[in-house]
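notes to self, project folder thing:

trying the whole complex as one job this time. last attempt i did each chain seperately and stitching them together was a nightmare. two parts in total, labels are on each line so i dont mix them up again. if this works i'll redo the older ones the same way
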Amino acid sequence: MRKVYLIAAGESKFGTQITKGYEELFADAFLEAMEQVENLDPNDIQEGMIGSLAFGGSQLGNMSALVADSVNLIGKPFARVENACGASGFAFRYAFYSIASGMNDIALAGGVEKMQDISKATRLYWFGVAGDIKWERLSGMTFPGNYALMATRHMHEFGTTREQITGAAVKNHKNASKNPKAQFRNQISLEKALKAPFVAYPLTVYDCCPLTDGASCAILASEEVAKKCTDELIEIVGVGAGTDHLALYQRDSLTRIEAAKKAAQQAFEMAKLTPQDIHVAEVHDCFTIAEILAYEDVGFCKKGEGGKMISEGITEVGGKIPVNTGGGLKAKGHPIGATGTGQIYEIFKQLRNEHVNQVNGAEIGLTHNVGGTGSACSVHVFKRAR
Amino acid sequence: MRKVYLIAAGESKFGTQITKGYEELFADAFLEAMEQVENLDPNDIQEGMIGSLAFGGSQLGNMSALVADSVNLIGKPFARVENACGASGFAFRYAFYSIASGMNDIALAGGVEKMQDISKATRLYWFGVAGDIKWERLSGMTFPGNYALMATRHMHEFGTTREQITGAAVKNHKNASKNPKAQFRNQISLEKALKAPFVAYPLTVYDCCPLTDGASCAILASEEVAKKCTDELIEIVGVGAGTDHLALYQRDSLTRIEAAKKAAQQAFEMAKLTPQDIHVAEVHDCFTIAEILAYEDVGFCKKGEGGKMISEGITEVGGKIPVNTGGGLKAKGHPIGATGTGQIYEIFKQLRNEHVNQVNGAEIGLTHNVGGTGSACSVHVFKRAR
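result (full assembly):
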């Protein structure tokens, strides 16, 4: 199999972007990516895979050609990939395949979502469409409710505390405060976050990610092309993905995202690395408890010890495995389809030594992007060649 | 690059399927595919890509895990691929990549759509979401209207007649009459079809495909696995795809689908074949004029001569290049996301010498699957190894 490299990445500002459509947001991300790389004619990009759940704005289906048009790549094959909040992780996976196979030398993976220009009622409905509708949503379950079940179960089984869970939000707001692209740049205190109104116990409003407009993209290339375009080679050394039952009631455990475990195992096996080799990671913290589950599912700690990773500062910038150094979904924002390649953008910046919260000596990074409440997950491992 | 083979295909009955959800429809298709192939444990399928525009039924987003669940493949990576009516052609493309790369040995590509269990108003809206919304739909354009523009322009430029255009429907109904899975099994006369009420001049109700519930799937495998599973090897020798502007007004020509031309050129180049080598084809006849454009875009005839292909019987079963031998979108039906792999199902049956309208000696087949009004197209070329 051919080696595949990440040669560029870009991201729009995340947040409320009333004056930009999804084409404009995607163009922002694309133009930044193009600035990252020399000797690449954008027209040499051969194909694009675009993650989005419902993209918003005027177009309601068949949006990939419009995205291609927005960056002047009409003519090239483009399609949309959807796996709820895990959409662009899978778009990236397929772009990887296209280069590993030898069919493409340069491919674009990206994502885009507009969540703010729809009515509040529709917004509340939005997250619901990514959960199980037949049995859970129609019984009144919401996305915060689903994750609250996981949180209370984790507290019950492992003694995890609210302070540990909500601590993930405090850390991620701190990281986002230095990130000019983040939706929330305010730092929060643990005390304030714990006392905030509950959305679904034990999750307060500070435990939940916001609704975000945004876009992101990554450029993948073969070894030959990568070496022409940059001296800073980042290889995609591990690729993994899995699914699980959409409805929580069908799963064996509420404190484990089986899809993530499978994805991480595959990615580490392919990379011939272990979780302890990772220098920096971006994980899917749509709710704070999700970040704690991610630590355990990826293997950064043993089952049940995710809470301690927070309370002991292990995943802070400066800790042993800094996580969500860009602010995570919680504070950087969560433009659903754009989140997966948005995580890859952060790791790209880290491995290029250009991050706003740079981790010293970061050479190996990981992304963990979840769809729904864990019905799908993709994990990617990146390694800077020295 | 590794060779990739089509080792099985399956399809649900197409039409109005009130009593089946999309999970049940997909399971119908999958079970038929599993019957086609010996020595394959379904659990050895490593990944699935599922085409769908809006799938219908209860789930409104994040449906790929439910599809995986419906065929007991939960755990494996699954994602949805969307390119309007071209969705599962692109799902098949990504499944091809996954095996060509060496990452997978066996992959599933499929599609599913429920179009009948939603209100009539919503249904009329449906096709609109696949066209350009900002400039065309909001100005009152409909999908039949878009294709009617292409038809009148073709008549104006090349002297194509209504008899030639509508003749595609007569042919396809004739083919569907022998296909037990087809939505319409009635034959129609050219006279009756021409006198039917206009939907958008020159297209009458008989020039337009129906709204269809249905599912389809294909199993792809590496050479090693394919040889273990079957003696009847069908290689995927050509793969191509392209995009074009979503809105008609942005295109250079109304009588050419540029995305299809690009897709076909790529596929033939890769296959080292020409359009004249094709023994049987399935093309995207969402409206009769689309079939005539397909002949020209794929290269079965010169520009402007598509009408003659019909009036001279060249694409009839028994003609030089039989097209849409299963009945096409027009008469077999058009369950949007399931159409691409539904076409592949027909070619699979033809190259296995098992088709209801068998083309004698068919060894090389082609599929042509369009998204929107031509904003995307994928073309695949298949060759039976002898």
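what i see at first glance: The first strand of chain B starts at residue 4 and ends at 11.
need to look closer tmrw
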